[in-house]
Fold these 4 entries.
Entry 1:
Amino acid sequence: MTNDSGKWADPNFSSVDQSDRTVPVNLRQTGRPDIELLISTRARKSPYWHLAVEAGCWRAEVYNRMYLPRGYASEGDGGAAAEYEALTRRVTLWDIAAARQIRVRGPEATEFVNYVVTRDVTRLAAMRAAYVVLCDSGGRMINDPLLLKISAGEYWFSISDSDLSLWLKGVNVGKGFDVEIQEIDVSPVQIQGVEADGLMADLIGDVASGMPVFGLAEAEIAGVPVLVSRTGFSGEAGYEVYLKNSSVYAERMWDAILRAGEKYGLAVTGPIQPHRITSGILAWGQDVDSEMVPFQVGLGAHIPRDKESDYIGRDAIERMRTEIAAGNHPYRLTMVGLRMEGDPIADYLSDFWLVAPSPDSEPVGFVTSASYAPKLQTNVALARLPVELAVPGTRVYVSDPAAGSAGGSVPAVVSAFPIE
């Protein structure tokens, strides 16, 4: 798509149909603005931040108004490839305190939580976790956190990048459930990788070996109380460790994990892109946002038909389910996976790359996340495409709008999840 000068036209007004959105995605929402970004006191540091810097953190992004470390290994030390190797061959430690913990506690905690999430939490046993979806009255997504059920009277939301606590409090202004809603001084880290089971057994003993996937356990590390979940954001074996009173005990727990991890070759890293993308794990604000509905991003399995009680957005969601079954999708673009040719993508995209059905046709969709996947020896991506193109095996063409008209396009093939 070019203008009279032969340069790419402004992709903000490209041919990608976003008429189902109130605010179209800015397709030149560049991540590298080539200016100095002002960082003030509105961005918080986690209690592990200074420890992450000591471990070599050289870049971070802002997530839930907190710094989230996203790079440790320098290019000279192998960069992202070295961090990927640490995850797939050894074990890694991530500071993910930016996944802030919102506690709902009180006599009507189960009733309240069951009203705000789409799944039936009355069927969720105590000391179990679950991936959940929250929607507004129109069926559009508010957040997709991990829900930790401590007991029938206490739940923690480990949140994606949005102000979920404000939504929960606002809902309860009108509903008046007997609950207390507040952020708590609990900061998680993730221990992810092929050696995660062994490391966790060393840290918390037999409790680790008996934990089912999505199980929770109370434990201690270096004499400090923690809650552990067998979950993660990597696609590998993994755990999340929720440190209580983290503003006090962060150094004690972190140092204990580092010492125990020495024999496993533990590396401190940030979340690692290739496994997340290949597994179809969505990043809030990057792949999914509050103008999208669960069916649009492959989360229909998290919307049960048989939940007995009402929840926010149920009527709209069931209408959409009926429309989709009849072939009338209430959205223009849907999420797909891509296997993508071209030079290996070594870093995060700074623009939403555009997708067209042929090399010389107008763009109809865009890539939201992409990375080189060493295991598959190809680039992989998450993209939003028109429903009619969202069929595994469909061939499309991807272009970087920043490269200009001379940049060309690379072939890609639509894939189901996980991308194989």
Entry 2:
Amino acid sequence: MDSFSKKLRECREAKSLSQKDLVGILNTSVIGKYERDEIIPSIEVAKNIAKILGTTVGYLLGKTEEVNIFKDPTVLNRFNNIEKLNPENKKHLLSIVDGFIQVLKFKNIAAL
């Protein structure tokens, strides 16, 4: 997976922001150092960067390849609630969700 510096640069450029633009938005002068792997931002700074760039900290850290995974707070809240369930209920709920996804995929294939 790519490093934080590469992901940061990729996302910044995708938003058509220069380093100077991001420096102004974040009110910090170390964006270039982040992109050269000279320093690593604090978690709070990483969260702010992710929010500004429309991605997640997980993506910037290379923990996921999905740029926008769980960006929708409603979806994230639902997954957090599922995570709190006891293992038996969680297993049943995820089985239902998996089945529903399969039905939708089948409908999409049949519609072609």
Entry 3:
Amino acid sequence: MPSLLGIDSGLTVTKAVIFDLDGTPLATARRKVTQVMPHARHVERDMAELWRATADAIREAVERSNRPASDIKAVGATAHGDGIYLLDREGQPLGRGILSLDSRARAIVDRWCEGALADQSIALTGQVPHVSAPSALLAWIRDMEPERFARIGHVLSCKDWLRLCLTGVIGTDRTEASTSFTNVKTQEYDPDALRLFDLHDLSHALPPAAGSDEVVGTVTREAADLTGLCEGTPVVAGLHDVTASALGAGGYDEGIVAVIAGTYSINETLSAQPRVDRRWFCRNGISPGTWNNMSISPASSANYEWFLDQLCAADQASVEAASGSIHALLGPEIDAALARPSTVLFHPYLFGSPYGAAASAGFFGLQGWHDRGDMLRAILEGIAFNHRIHVDALREGFASTRARLAGGVSRNPSVVQLFADVLALPVTTSQTDEAAAWGAALCAGAGVGLYAEPCGDPSRDIASARTWLPDPGRSVEYEKRFRVFKEIAEAMSPLWPKIADLAPHST
């Protein structure tokens, strides 16, 4: 029976999912990957460890599928976008990979955005540079680690590194190529983009870009030995996880805003023409002549996970020992808090925000009679409010009348209803738990002719588990809370840098 392998390497977990051709997951395996934070604002990972963890996950998925590896007809990979994974001129890792949660380049980006460069960048590349953009990180390495900079042979993304480990072929795809150095109109690399950031010395290091569904290599013997895959299995170029998530969730289309509540607050919509604005990135779509417009910030469900890790550790250990779920345990507390009035608001800016890198997280309106449920409610509302900021921006630029929600929070009906009420839009969830991996698998299937195109999702017609309609009364109440949420953020904007300066060596 033919099947497909989708690899999805996120910021904390790398996973392998084997799918039937109708989108049914046959087997899933995950491995945690250690984040290394040697200094404040530095978020890195060991590239060799990432590959070993991914290879282990692939092997486990193959074994758990109870099917021969020869059934897997193609492989597609996706992973967190932005950040950089550098190779030297011999093709070996040049230090640790830098994740998209990294904000070491904050001062560089602030300087760029205070001058004319930001306007020049958006006109040329379709986006204002941000702290985890390859342009910003490479500029930081140029200034702070010149010896390392001089040794750069190749600039890859996370999924490109995994693809190299699978095939031995260096390259990227169109969606990933557009993170910093392509012309928004031609959709191809532009030397002027490198010159804009004073990175012209790296023209040799940009990897060739293929179509996301283009077969670019096959699994090598060495990779087959590590993963359990068959040597010679075709591997496609893959794609940026933001795009893969929208594709796999059935939200990759015009008129739909795809909302991915993961580590990042991802909000995107497709267009047939480039339209630029400081509030979103206008990047290459999967097909030439299409653009994926992304309004994002590192401020979504990672805040919820942080709260669980830091303040619910004992409960997590207890329920895991009993093979239970911390989410099931906390569900009644959250539902009870959602049903009663509350003054508690939370800004979900532990790792970043739409208000700049200096912003930080915080509770407001918290008083002695509030409990853990009230705090969890505020965190979830804050996550939804932050998505609303991005969705509102996209709705001003594009005609989006409905939303497609994916990410771990979409498994909780109360939270999905919260998103519908906050966004004041119908919100549809997908039956596919692993949307990004399925998006990568769709590209793999198209690459070997099993689908006519990556968007030819055979499960698209049945992907809607349910559509949640906004409750008009609750939407009115959330509108009031959202306005206060924004007013506090705007009032805090001049104070956040002062807070950061209280511990200058940690920023």
Entry 4:
Amino acid sequence: MLSRQKVFTLGFQHVLAMYAGAVVVPLIVGGALKLTGEQMAYLIAADLFTCGLATILQVMGTQWFGSRLPVILGCTFTAVGPIIAIASTSNLATAYGAIILSGLFVVLAAPLYGKLLKFFPTVVTGSVVTIIGLSLIPVAMNNAAGGQGAPDFGAPRNLLLAFGTLVVILLVNRFATGFLRSISVLVGLAAGTAAGYTMGIVNFASVGQASWVSIAQPFYFGVPQISITAVITMILVNIVSMVESTGVYFAVGKATDQKVEKGQIVNGLRSEGVAIMLGGIFNAFPYTAFSQNVGLISLTRVKSRDVIFAAGGIMVVLGLLPKLAALTTVIPSAVLGGAMIVMFGSVAASGISILSAVDLRKDSNLLIAACSIAVGLGSATLPQMFDQLPGFAKMLLQSGIVSGSLTAIVLNLFLSGTGEAPAAESQAEAGSTAQHA
């Protein structure tokens, strides 16, 4: 049984692991829409507050809502372009009206989506989880170099910081035991940030400028307005997110050595729908299961839902106290990149572990895994290849997770002729799960 102090520390480690992904979306949207400094501060605070509420609902679970899996919810990158487009052509109130209604769609469509899970046999889920990990690795490497678009991108000091952070995490995992080992990523982030401070690249200006208290206000940017086109656009965005979240749920199941049931996924998606509606009400963003934290679970082997519950509580507090939230932004991108390398690599390794229960000597399984992973990784690393396609197709295919998942599902139907996992594979998977339990 973990003490409260340990639960809090492990929860804080999860917050730091996903913080960059959570904050970058409001920064991109706010910058593109030329929001004022005050509006940007509100956007970030509301985002963190809603992230926390959504995560708590997901972890607690009720009869109809919450997967009861250690899953953290964060704003989806898929929604960035559509939100900017809708707000630019009309206004933010129209974008938030669309987000609220699209969240309602997810709540209502979750049971129907659950009926499609038979098209996710072991070879498909293993391929999808592998794609999730591999498609995130370029994000890690970009951060390790200093962050995409940074003036010092690729500077030796950035590479040194990233490498040093990675080495610290590996050393703690190799030589430490117990609780210290489980917070290896937090130790690496702290050591990397301290090293960055001695190099003069840690800036505390944002902490001084941040306000002490910020209360999330419903409809901060005005009463929601309805546009059918905008609503349809956001529904499509959330369908993409539902596919991505399914892969994350399976990845978490593998990381925690448990079989993810259909009911858990349906309830988890219903929770995401509620979270999306909350995002619209508090003028934040649509939310989805964050894959960043799956690798952390695999690495630390701490599977307690209490830790994720604590992470949700910490995010709520950070959303209410922007000055504390600003403290977490001083971590250099290169340091985050060094930590991401091992976390995202762990997700890919989990996918490979799932695929190890599949008979890849069988041509159909080999082709399903090979083609879906290649398509998913290709889409993630070269999304601009789809720039000439219509808007919906472009949005769908530029997500490596979605394009890879669809490839795996279609090939499984075409080559295997069934939506059910072959009996031999199911037995192999059960044996693998028992072995890891």
